[in-house]
Amino acid sequence: MVRFILNRLLLIVPTFIGITLVAFIFIRLLPGDPVILMAGERGVSAERHAELMAQFGFDQPLWKQYVDYVSGLLHGNFGYSYSTKKPVLSEFMARFPATLELGLCAIVLASVLGIAAGILAAIRRGSWIDQVTMGTALVGYSMPIFWWALLLIILFSTKLGWTPVSGRIALTQFFPSVTGFMLIDSLLAGKPAAFWSAVQHLILPTIVLATIPLAVIARQTRSAMLEVLGEVYIMTAKSKGLTPRRVIWLHALRNALIPVVTTIGLQVSVLIGGAILTETIFSWPGIGKWMIDSISRRDYQVVQGGLLLIAAVVMFVNLTVDLLYGLINPRVRYR
Amino acid sequence: MSATDDPHLGTAEQEPLGPPPIAPWRESWHYFLANRGAVIGLVVLALLVLTAIFAPLLAPHDPTMQYRDALLVPPAWLERGRPEFLLGTDALGRDILSRLIFGARFSLVIGLVVVALALVSGIFVGLIAGYFGGWIDSAIMRVMDIILAFPSLLLALVLVAIIGPGLFNAMLAIAVVLQPHFARLTRGAVIAEKNREYVTAARVAGASNLRLMVRTILPNCLGPLIVQATLSFSNAILDAAALGFLGMGAQPPTPEWGTMLAEAREFITSAWWVVTMPGIAILITVLAVNLIGDGLRDTFDPKLRRS
């Protein structure tokens, strides 16, 4: 097991170096002079220009710039935002909990509903339940989620008035931030009204963000379940006279869920892409909206740092899923 | 797929010596036709293609014509609706139906161009990696890993930020993001095939590297690639619409469906039809393509087919 873990850790080193290269090249590929880009429409004098070039190291040879960049990263320097003048890392940390809270709610909803729907469809294969579930899953899988979000807002926020249109919590609610998760912090502060407000704000974005992962997980669970149900050991279990319920829950499900874990892990990358759209539409103050705002504001150091940090998060999650996979599937470990 | 109508019965009686050379494709086609969803998807897609081709004949109005006396007219069947604007008009008085009809051109071309770019470059890169192996393989596949390490929409957004917003640049960016999937598939299939007897036989017979790669090995890897191409087609349409929606894809007044949605956002409370219609168009198109993709996957995967 230790060897397995070490192997996986070694594999991510080249990918991580590659990610830093992409982030490094990104700013240099932008058309135009980096300092003039930073200065924007105000422009910059010739002396100030040279000064800034030297300050950011743009006058150094490329390899030197890259080495400086990576050594900066290792010291926690991910650049500074042009617009707020704050370090990118602290801006990221300030917004990450919002995205994490939304993402966790979405992935839990998608996993629970998706696995349940997939099992149901598989054991009732060919029935109307199967057809309706898989039909719905296909629609969900094909959904342009930004449009789906607008539809939900039209129905639940403007027509019915059940949920707020945007934001994370009502502006009238105040409580200290401990964990960064509104749901937990409001309870810690002992404010049920604030908790309820946070829940209401979460419902629509969670549904929107969960839609595609939910469909993917349901489809994957169904086909994994069908594959397992055709295995010889299931026939053995059945012929031993075990009840169908026991066969499905104890013998089939355990093995069917192994590939589903990987699927859920792969959805994290999809979730972050979805978070860009979802957060933009619901004005959710997370990293997705932050990235879009920074791109349109041409705050390229933020884009560069954010790109790197997001890729690092995705890589970390994939690594965790890989290790988890080794833990639940002993066959992988000994290969 | 329903189990009752099994078109495989015809070939099941054949000698178990091995399938005849042409039959697998015909057999696949049979399976595909037996899949009701896939056929529906194919019919819808065909209708969309016809709509796109004959857009100027079908559209009742010019898609960019602004009728100043008909701003935000609701669909014809509603109160205040007008028969000449079947699906209503947008905030500038443009006929929504005509814009949707012309929008079909954009979505289908986006899908085609993106898949063509990603498929050709992915197959090229994957063939080289799989066929030559060694450090070439490692180097190429690490680059693919790096592309896949980023969430695809984010990477596409950043690429567009570098090369500038616009429909063509958005297509390029999406192709770059989708390409590694084709490269990985091709590489895997090539590695699985290249040591088979038929490849060795062709090599002994004097086939060149290029011929071995393209004529001998590649045709045997096509099944999964076709399925991936269909999935990428729908992904490309969705991603391009998302980029358009975020203002980084096609620019107004282009009647691209995602861009139309972006323009419609502010009328979410006052004029629901401006928001609803382009989304329905995107959903129907993507759904049709995904139905075809599912049908193809079932067709090419014998394991699923039998059960």
UniProtKB/TrEMBL annotation, chain A:
<keyword id="KW-0813">Transport</keyword>
<feature type="domain" description="ABC transmembrane type-1">
    <location>
        <begin position="96"/>
        <end position="325"/>
    </location>
</feature>
<keyword id="KW-1133">Transmembrane helix</keyword>
<keyword id="KW-0472">Membrane</keyword>
<feature type="transmembrane region" description="Helical">
    <location>
        <begin position="135"/>
        <end position="157"/>
    </location>
</feature>
<dbReference type="InterPro" id="IPR045621">
    <property type="entry name" value="BPD_transp_1_N"/>
</dbReference>
<keyword id="KW-0812">Transmembrane</keyword>
<protein>
    <submittedName>
        <fullName>Dipeptide transport system permease protein</fullName>
    </submittedName>
</protein>
<dbReference type="Pfam" id="PF19300">
    <property type="entry name" value="BPD_transp_1_N"/>
</dbReference>
<keyword id="KW-1003">Cell membrane</keyword>
<feature type="transmembrane region" description="Helical">
    <location>
        <begin position="195"/>
        <end position="217"/>
    </location>
</feature>
<dbReference type="InterPro" id="IPR000515">
    <property type="entry name" value="MetI-like"/>
</dbReference>
<dbReference type="Pfam" id="PF00528">
    <property type="entry name" value="BPD_transp_1"/>
</dbReference>
<dbReference type="GO" id="GO:0005886">
    <property type="term" value="C:plasma membrane"/>
</dbReference>
<comment type="similarity">
    <text>Belongs to the binding-protein-dependent transport system permease family.</text>
</comment>
<dbReference type="GO" id="GO:0071916">
    <property type="term" value="F:dipeptide transmembrane transporter activity"/>
</dbReference>
<feature type="transmembrane region" description="Helical">
    <location>
        <begin position="102"/>
        <end position="123"/>
    </location>
</feature>
<dbReference type="InterPro" id="IPR035906">
    <property type="entry name" value="MetI-like_sf"/>
</dbReference>
<feature type="transmembrane region" description="Helical">
    <location>
        <begin position="256"/>
        <end position="282"/>
    </location>
</feature>
<feature type="transmembrane region" description="Helical">
    <location>
        <begin position="6"/>
        <end position="30"/>
    </location>
</feature>
<feature type="transmembrane region" description="Helical">
    <location>
        <begin position="302"/>
        <end position="328"/>
    </location>
</feature>
Automatic annotation (TrEMBL), chain B:
<dbReference type="GO" id="GO:0055085">
    <property type="term" value="P:transmembrane transport"/>
</dbReference>
<comment type="similarity">
    <text>Belongs to the binding-protein-dependent transport system permease family.</text>
</comment>
<dbReference type="InterPro" id="IPR050366">
    <property type="entry name" value="BP-dependent_transpt_permease"/>
</dbReference>
<dbReference type="InterPro" id="IPR025966">
    <property type="entry name" value="OppC_N"/>
</dbReference>
<feature type="domain" description="ABC transmembrane type-1">
    <location>
        <begin position="104"/>
        <end position="293"/>
    </location>
</feature>
<feature type="transmembrane region" description="Helical">
    <location>
        <begin position="153"/>
        <end position="178"/>
    </location>
</feature>
<keyword id="KW-0472">Membrane</keyword>
<dbReference type="InterPro" id="IPR035906">
    <property type="entry name" value="MetI-like_sf"/>
</dbReference>
<dbReference type="GO" id="GO:0015833">
    <property type="term" value="P:peptide transport"/>
</dbReference>
<keyword id="KW-0653">Protein transport</keyword>
<feature type="transmembrane region" description="Helical">
    <location>
        <begin position="270"/>
        <end position="293"/>
    </location>
</feature>
<protein>
    <submittedName>
        <fullName>Dipeptide transport system permease protein</fullName>
    </submittedName>
</protein>
<keyword id="KW-1133">Transmembrane helix</keyword>
<dbReference type="Pfam" id="PF00528">
    <property type="entry name" value="BPD_transp_1"/>
</dbReference>
<dbReference type="InterPro" id="IPR000515">
    <property type="entry name" value="MetI-like"/>
</dbReference>
<keyword id="KW-1003">Cell membrane</keyword>
<dbReference type="GO" id="GO:0015031">
    <property type="term" value="P:protein transport"/>
</dbReference>
<keyword id="KW-0813">Transport</keyword>
<keyword id="KW-0571">Peptide transport</keyword>
<dbReference type="Pfam" id="PF12911">
    <property type="entry name" value="OppC_N"/>
</dbReference>
<feature type="transmembrane region" description="Helical">
    <location>
        <begin position="38"/>
        <end position="59"/>
    </location>
</feature>
<keyword id="KW-0812">Transmembrane</keyword>
